[in-house]
Design goal:
The complex is a heterodimer of chains A (112) and B (111). Chain A is an all-beta fold. Chain A contains no helices and 11 strands. Chain A has strands at 4-7, 10-13, 19-25, 31-38, 42-51, 54-57, 65-66, 76-78, 87-94, 102-103, 107-111. In chain A, strands 2, 4, 5, 6, 9, 10 and 11 form a 7-stranded mixed beta sheet that branches. With 111 residues, chain B is an all-beta fold. Helices cover 0% and strands 55% of the residues of chain B. Chain B has strands spanning 5-7, 10-14, 19-24, 31-37, 44-50, 55-58, 61-66, 71-76, 85-92, 99-101, 105-110. In chain B, the strands form 2 sheets. In chain B, strands 2, 4, 5, 9, 10 and 11 form a 6-stranded mixed beta sheet that branches. Chain B is globular, with a radius of gyration of 13 Å. The model of chain B has no long low-confidence stretch (mean pLDDT 91). Classes of the chains: A mainly beta (112), B mainly beta (111). At the A-B interface, strand 5, strand 9 and strand 10 of A face strand 4, strand 5, strand 9 and strand 10 of B.
Chain lengths: 112, 111
């Protein structure tokens, strides 16, 4: 089944404790991206990747890192999480950015 | 930066009625996409309309695009309770690298 998976689905952590949210797709898509969703603000893009080893900042990259060492994986790294990064995070993939995006189920993060 | 802006922010209707949501954007686009999100879940693609298209249909969905007014509308006909969700429009920037979503319209369909 074609899908985008994210792990974990729910995470509670404390300020400053490094964490990684994994994202994997099995559709051989070149384009992958991360979004955060906050009430009243909609979805905002954090980082995107056009292909392996090619990543770039979206609208809200501060406090986040990403890597794209393999085509299927695009982890989101929070080196030192802060409470303002409490949010619902989505990973998405597509053949190209202007084509249909396939979203993962989301990761709900709470930073205390 | 928010490119697409949906209107209204919230819409409440009865089953069987039609629901219309609008999206406005600021710069030229390659295409415009509509997505649905059930509460707290991942977004699901509904329909994509290219800049050279004016209207597109998919089942009970009808999307129009007016590039001169930089606006699009999504019509859901004969709505059902299962259509209750948030609906987002999204546009691709001129560099074809990022997809920007609006803040969404929350649709509530009551039985």
């Amino acid at each position: 089944e074609a899908q985008v998976t994210q792990n974990p689905r729910y995470l509670i952590t404390v300020t400053g404790k490094k964490l990684t949210v994994t994202c994997s797709q099995n559709m051989n898509h070149e384009y992958m991206s991360w979004y955060r969703q906050d009430p009243g603000l909609g979805l905002r893009q954090i980082y995107y990747s056009m292909n392996v080893e090619v990543t770039d900042k979206g609208d809200v990259p501060e406090g986040y890192k990403v890597s794209r060492k393999e085509k299927r994986n695009f982890p989101l790294i929070l080196e030192s999480p802060s409470p303002n990064q409490t949010s619902l995070y989505f990973c998405a993939s597509s053949p190209r950015p202007q084509e249909t995006q396939y979203f993962g189920p989301g990761t709900r993060l709470l930073v205390l | 930066s928010q490119q697409g802006e949906e209107d209204p922010q919230a819409l409440s209707i009865q089953e069987g009625e039609n629901a219309t949501m609008n999206c406005s954007y600021k710069t030229s686009i390659n295409n415009l996409q509509w997505y649905r999100q059930n509460s707290g879940r991942g977004l699901v693609h509904l329909i994509l309309i290219r800049s050279n298209e004016r209207e597109k249909h998919s089942g009970r969905l009808r999307v129009t695009l007016d590039t001169s007014k930089k606006s699009s509308s999504l019509l859901i006909t004969a709505s059902r309770a299962a259509d209750t969700a948030s609906y987002f429009c999204a546009t691709v920037n001129s560099g074809y690298s990022t997809l920007t979503f609006g803040k969404g319209t929350m649709l509530l369909v009551s039985p």
